[in-house]
Amino acid sequence: MERITFYEQISSNKWKSFFLILIVIVFLLLLGTVIGLIMGEGYFFIIMFFTVIFTIIYVLAGYYGADKIAIASVGAKEASLQEFRQFHNTVEGLCLASGLPKPKLFVMEDDDINAFASGRDPEHAVICVTTAALEKLDKQELEGVLAHEISHIGNYDIRYMTLAAVLVGMVAMLSHIFLRSLFFGGGRRDNKGGAGFLILVVVGIVLAILAPIFASLVQLAISRKREYVADASAVKIMRSPTGLIRALKKLKGNPSTPHKRITKAVAPLFISDPFNHNRQADSWLSTHPTLNNRIAILERM
């Protein structure tokens, strides 16, 4: 079995994430070009202006409140130093090793081993773990999980995923406005009736329908790549994959339990999909790679 270094894994997946962002930008530019040709440049710039403004306002509202929204949604409580001293000590040690400031720490009541990090930058970050993670993971396994979450913070993954969300939101909104305009009286009247124009309209409609779907799939792929980056970055911090491997294996053997507070919107933040730990194959519709694939890559480091 060929060995890989965490440097190679980090670099490879960062480049793949960057390339996937470029694909979304290409979708946006292609859709914008077709709309401009059909509706006219003046009309295109007007709807593009409003699309950009509304999308950025909507996403940034969530971006700046990401940590508070995530913590409130799962009903987590701040971890006191007296009650959760090992949790605090472990995070402090990992932050010293990674050169990052210590995030605020929270604990949520849950029978499932899991954890997540959120926050727009290292100075406004939080880490939350479930009570099951603190109870069922040994010291080395907990270090592996927390190193993974600290890596998300250090890699600015919330900021990166916010950029992806802005671009995908722009594609979706632009498509929606175009289709509504087209079917409710829009279009360049001087070109109506020409065969070339009709073909262009058909291409525009197909692109407007498919572009948001493909852009959303790319966004999910970016999310999976960032999980691989966080795994490799955790190994870089700890200088060993052993703790994280054991934690992921234990997580895999811990069947998903019904969650009263975790929603589908927050689920992508967790170290593993809280609704399906034991998925056997990667899916285009998943936010996380399978635990089997992650473990296999870590075992090669």
Please give a structural write-up.
Helix content is 65%, strand content 5%. It is mostly helical and 301 residues long. The protein has a 4-stranded mixed sheet, with helices on both faces. Strand 3 (115-118) and strand 4 form a beta hairpin. The longest helix is centred in the last third of the chain and has 44 residues, at 195-238. The protein starts with 5 loop residues before the first helix and ends with a helix. The model has no long low-confidence stretch (mean pLDDT 83).
Write out key terms for the chains shown.
301 residues, elongated, 10 helices
Which helices and strands, and how do they pair?
Blueprint: H1 6-39, H2 41-64, H3 66-74, E1 77-78, H4 85-98, E2 104-108, E3 115-118, E4 126-130, H5 131-136, H6 139-154, H7 157-183, H8 195-238, H9 242-253, H10 291-299
Parallel strand pairs: 2-4
Antiparallel strand pairs: 1-2, 3-4
Helix pairs in contact: 1-2, 1-7, 1-8, 2-7, 4-6, 6-8, 6-9, 7-8, 9-10
Provide mean pLDDT, rounded.
83
**What would you report as the Rg, rounded to the nearest angstrom?**
22 Å
What letter string, H or E per element, gives the SSE order? Answer: HHHEHEEEHHHHHH
Give me the count of strands: 4
Summarize the structure.
This protein is mainly α and 301 residues long. 65% of the residues lie in helices and 5% in strands.
